[in-house]
Give the backbone structure.
Amino acid sequence: MSNRNETVPQHIVLAFSGGLDTSVALVWLKERYRCRLTAFIADLGQGEELGVAARKAEKLGADEVRVVDLREEFARDFAFPMYRANALYEGQYLMGSSIGRPLIAAAHLRVAEEVGADAVAHGATGKGNDQIRFEMTFAALRPDLTVISPWREWEFASRSDLLDYAGKHGIELDLSSGDRPYSIDSNLLHTSYEGEALEDPAQPAPEGLLFRVRDLADTPAEPETVEIHFEGGNPVGVNGESLSAAGVLQALDEIGRRHGIGRLDIVENRIFGMKTRNIYEAPSGTLLWHGHRAVESLVLDPEVAQLKEELMPKYTALVYRGLWFAPERLMLQTAIDFSQQNVTGDAILRVHRGTVQVIGRRSPHSRYDTAFATFEADDVFDQRDSSGWLRVNTVRFRAGRGTAPVQP
């Protein structure tokens, strides 16, 4: 156990997805601890696989199965705050998995409280990021609770070992879908793929693996215009229709899927310092990120916008490393949210064959003034005033007699 003590758990709540790792974990936990086990399944928008996972948990021996609908909470309280920060890990990754984990862990604890469990367990591997995200949340919210991480305790060293165990214990696997030893994670924001053949970063993804967005060859020949309405930094409507938080992500997801938006193949640096090859498909997240920045460009004070850009990598690192409930993330969120008070308006995007182009933006709080921006004659800016600014800001060059460092 991660929290070492002499107490044998009486009731474990296992975060269960129905894939290979958690299926083996459920049977292994029951076999080892011989106690009551509740399977907790978090609904972040996975769709039909939720029912499959629930039936599977029952068949594998779970004493109780809890499926908890977290879609609105995920969009409103986790995804939207992150997108108000324009968070982007290593300049590319929109962190669809990273932001889901703290919510799953927090809901996991709520279920444990409801059923009176004295331990929680997860199926994250011992060298991956998710164990950190789950257990940072557990520690921040319920440091007294016993945490069991099977991957850090059992004798198995690989997913091949898990397949062998599954075969010996009658755990049925559909290796043509979610049970194959790829790691696939889906929610309202994205789908991620890693493992097996994807571990060779020089090789393209196997045919038929990626399923969320259309291949570019199958996308419509004509572009589509999308309008996203924001209020206080949050998207509240798409194409003139007011929607709930989850509804916004679902609407953007459908549009993005159709046009092949948001597919990304990268090598990223994990928390432990190793590199991993991942493929992400994030249609709704990609459209939301571009739209939010478009409205911000109209309304933010220039210095506030620059400071926000400087804070973003730090904020992003906190989210990626599972520190959603840490005081430093909450402090940065307060600063970011202060900047969002006037981020109200519309972003107009054109999507076409995998590309997103901002073609317009408007806001009642726009700071854009044609009178200042025009190249035509105006009566609000005396161009001769620039001379004084330039004289002051070039003092150091003139004082140094213009001796700039010699270029190599």
Remarks:
- Residues 82 and 230 are 15 Å apart (CA to CA).
- The two ends are 57 Å apart (CA to CA).
- The first helix runs from residue 20 to 33.
